[in-house]
Amino acid sequence: MSATKQATVLQPRVLLTGFAPFAGETLNPSWEAVRMLHGRRIGGHRIVARQLPVEFGTALKALRAAIRDTRPSLVLCVGQAGGRASMSLERVAINVDDARIPDNAGASPIDLEIVRGGPAAYFTGLPIKAMLAALRDAGIPVEVSQTAGTYVCNHVFYGLMHALRNRKVRGGFVHIPYSPEQAALHPGAPSLPVETVCQGLRIALQVALATGVDHKLGAGAEH
Amino acid sequence: MSATKQATVLQPRVLLTGFAPFAGETLNPSWEAVRMLHGRRIGGHRIVARQLPVEFGTALKALRAAIRDTRPSLVLCVGQAGGRASMSLERVAINVDDARIPDNAGASPIDLEIVRGGPAAYFTGLPIKAMLAALRDAGIPVEVSQTAGTYVCNHVFYGLMHALRNRKVRGGFVHIPYSPEQAALHPGAPSLPVETVCQGLRIALQVALATGVDHKLGAGAEH
Amino acid sequence: MSATKQATVLQPRVLLTGFAPFAGETLNPSWEAVRMLHGRRIGGHRIVARQLPVEFGTALKALRAAIRDTRPSLVLCVGQAGGRASMSLERVAINVDDARIPDNAGASPIDLEIVRGGPAAYFTGLPIKAMLAALRDAGIPVEVSQTAGTYVCNHVFYGLMHALRNRKVRGGFVHIPYSPEQAALHPGAPSLPVETVCQGLRIALQVALATGVDHKLGAGAEH
Amino acid sequence: MSATKQATVLQPRVLLTGFAPFAGETLNPSWEAVRMLHGRRIGGHRIVARQLPVEFGTALKALRAAIRDTRPSLVLCVGQAGGRASMSLERVAINVDDARIPDNAGASPIDLEIVRGGPAAYFTGLPIKAMLAALRDAGIPVEVSQTAGTYVCNHVFYGLMHALRNRKVRGGFVHIPYSPEQAALHPGAPSLPVETVCQGLRIALQVALATGVDHKLGAGAEH
């Protein structure tokens, strides 16, 4: 067994992605939070942080390349959800792009499949109810979300789950609010500091790595 | 050809369902709107209205029985979404029950599949973008929704699409706001009169019956 | 006693005002509702409807002229509050103009007194708690509002109460939601049909005319 | 001149108040933020922090006693506004108590004057537009609010301005969001960390102490 292979065995990895800024913002809190964890060890895993572009197609290529490079045992993608007040553990990704605003490359796909002929949706591979309970106990605003939208975040989430469909690697997606600095320019918008998000991601990853079967904990919505 | 069969051929049908009251309400505006259209003719089709119970499992049995009885060429299920301000054309149903509040039979399933081993989701079978455009043009508040929740409405929507999966019958789901009478008891909650909803459903059905390929019209969400 | 004077005595009047369209809208539901009541009799009073311009200063001149002309025993001014879901019975008008958007004449006053040296605020002269109870009982979405904003509506409300300060004429202000036709162009915005608002105004006026001492009914806000 | 009097002259003071927990909460972020500033020096002033009870009447007695004790040159009262997303600089206090929920002593006054025969309202004595600009520049979510409600916060704000009406001491009120720990138990509610609020209060006080004439900066509302 080569030294490299040994190292891989001894140091399992988590791939953690954030996005580039979009929609006129100068920063993206998902990347700010994620990069603070780069190189850290959580639950016996080394965190590898990567930034994805906010571009349909290109974002997924970058994600797949990062998966090939890092051979992670778990992948968590993080994206900005301006207007939401809590960390949102996404339950499901759907096979459609429908862009209300153009992506960073100017593309605005409408009602296109992400994977031609792919399943309508993939559920998250992460124990979101156990993560919900742990974050709430830690005093971090959190909720389970029933939709990741139809923009680049959902695109990446769906593409991630499709890429992992035949592997033992688990994956999932978390949306986060604006940072306070961003909210200062969006009057009335809720926010969560990058440090709080960073702490929340650390807890979320610890729980995800340690939990086999998810908890039975209600977190549904009537509509 | 028997007289009955002839009648069926000459009079294609639309099955339109609403729900019983739930969550302490004394009426359900979905049923109030739907029953006003019972027996009417829209786009050459006779409307058959049926009420479904707000009960996991039982609701789907009632829906499947109504489909058997009426042999519709199109099925539209309608449900109340207290707190929403517009008629919501649902894009996708997901294969999970997660009840925040008990149903009318006292059941609160958590993270159970609706159809064991069924696909994670079904997309609507209706041209929701064409319906969106027509309703907006008619001055009726309307939006495309990316989640029908995880309660009895999503349960019925998913079960409907599963029941229709190998047939030529099209189906879909529309959520509607409280009626003004209900909103009067929920301070600050938005509403839409049953008459407006009824008019909206009529337009939605006309468009659904007349439209083959849906319009390319953006109605997505960033998250 | 002259015939005219007799007529005045026999036919007491209510002055009911709505506003012209503003902020890019093609109609203002306050005027649409108000003009439907012009000439009607409510509680023994003849309704006189007048439209006010959405212009600081000019609106108040028009209001004072209408009061001189009609010699009403009660004045109710009605304005559009896009984004609110209920009829809002305004509790208080404050002595400040602070325009977030220009008025219809292009003026954007910032932190100017409406009446130089006038009191900081006037409370409504109408029994808003009795009106609240009656509207709720009639199934019309309604709330008491603790702020009428700092734009032309508050300007008119304050100017009205200042004009009536030494008279026996009572006055007040009601904000109303978008009409459904407007909300169709503001995705996600709540609405109330002009007919419902019209019916609500009729009830509100009946109660206002018939009620001396207001009800003791909580309708406060923590913040 | 006695040593004590000299000390007073040399060390002007700011009185900063927060509230006790209420409405079932175990802490009140207004007090948590305020007490972190106790004893600090800001703009040449010593900060004296005091906690007020969430009780109509008693809260005002405690405030007036604190003013007598500390002889401040500026008073800022801070209160929790669960559901708001930003620090809210209150523009105006109105002369009415209308409690939707009982205070901590069980009292629920409805439509009672705070000061019998007092003016309908007092405007803040602080330069809230200059404070708004400074907080926004510092990246702290902030807004001007046109209503402080009708509960104990408005009660204290009105009582404060009444107490200061004939003095050269300036005063005002700021509402703050839930802390993240509180929001974790109110799904979907926005929050701001106590540390961020604390930093915001420090900036707000610096600006308030240094600003004579307020900025001309629009921060109004249409309704």
How does this structure look, described?
Four copies of one chain form a homotetramer. The first copy, chain A, has helices at residues 3-10, 29-35, 58-70, 128-137, 152-163, 180-183, 194-210; strands at residues 13-19, 41-42, 45-52, 74-80, 87-90, 92-94, 97-98, 110-112, 121-123, 142-145, 170-176. The mean pLDDT of chain A is 95. With 223 residues, chain A is of the alpha/beta class. The termini of chain A are far apart. In chain A, helix 2 packs across helix 7, helix 3 runs parallel beside helix 5 (152-163) and helix 4 (128-137) crosses helix 7 (194-210). In chain A, strands 2-3-1-4-11-5-10 form a seven-stranded mixed sheet, sandwiched between helices. Chain A binds chain D through residues 85-86, 135-136, 138-143, 180-181, 183-185, 187-193, 196, and chain D through 85-86, 135-136, 138-143, 180-181, 183-185, 187-193, 196.
Keywords for this entry:
7 helices, PGP-I_bact-type (chains A, B, C, D), 32% helix, two-stranded antiparallel ribbon, alpha/beta, Peptidase_C15-like (chains A, B, C, D), homotetramer, 223 residues, cytoplasm (chains A, B, C, D), Aminopeptidase, 7-stranded mixed β-sheet
